[in-house]
Amino acid sequence: MATFGYGRVSTQDQTTDNQRLEIERAGYTIDYWFADEGVSGAVLAAQRPQFRDMLTKIRAGESLVVTKIDRLGRDAVDIQQTVKQFKALGVRVFVTQLGATDLTNSAGKMLLGMLAAFAEMERDLIVERTQAGLARARAQGCASAGHRKRARTTVRRFAGDSPPVRRSAQWRGPMESVGPA
After folding, report:
1. β-pairing, 63-66 with 3-9?
2. Interior CA angle at 109 toward 35 and 99, to 5°?
3. In 35-105, where does DSSP find H-type helix?
4. Which of 34, 44, 86, 112 is the most exposed place for a label (fewest CB within 10 A)?
5. What integer pLDDT is reported at residue 155 of this predicted model?
6. pLDDT tens, 14-38?
7. Strands, E, within 118-170: which ranges?
8. Which residues are known catalytic residues?
């Protein structure tokens, strides 16, 4: 039976190549590879384009391998529902970081519950740290903390028939006041 591999990265600047390599180094031969690039971990697994496509192709008796448990969903509930869905299809699910544990059997189910809770806690902590950093930046006077300004382009025409000239101004952050307020 076939072995499916799945990878996900949050930005287009990243690649899933290392995830596939990690799966292959763990001894799995990937027959079909699906990867969502530029898809946030906050998106439910079933709403990720490549994951959804994989769900239509994987069949009973086949296996799915991922590198980390958070590739199976956005939170503990989503991860558990995803694994239940694969179990109902007769698909075995493996996570390379967990060794050869099949998450669809009894021991795997217990392990999955604990690890999914830890994965969700880790994600919540990241969100909390990000929010705390943004709040601190705002308190220090950076009104636009968390919002990047995009380069603005203006078009000016000089006298005569010369073509438009584009000038870009890049936002460099808040200006410090000089002198008394």
Report:
1. parallel
2. 60
3. 49-57, 76-89
4. 44
5. 44
6. 889 999 999 999 999 999 999 999 8
7. 152-156, 165-169
8. 10
Among candidate residues 69, 65, 74, the one with its CA nearest the CA of residue 41: 74
Domain spans of the chain?
Answer: 3-135
Q: Give every CB contact of residue 155 below 8 A, 6+ residues apart in sequence.
A: 164, 165, 166
What is the total residue count of the chain?
Answer: 181
Burial class (CB in 10 A: 0-12, 13-18, 19+), 64: buried
Q: Are 57 and 31 in contact (CB under 8 A)?
A: no
Structure tokens belonging to residue 170: 């890049």
CATH of domain 3-135: 3.40.50.1390
Global pTM reads: 0.64
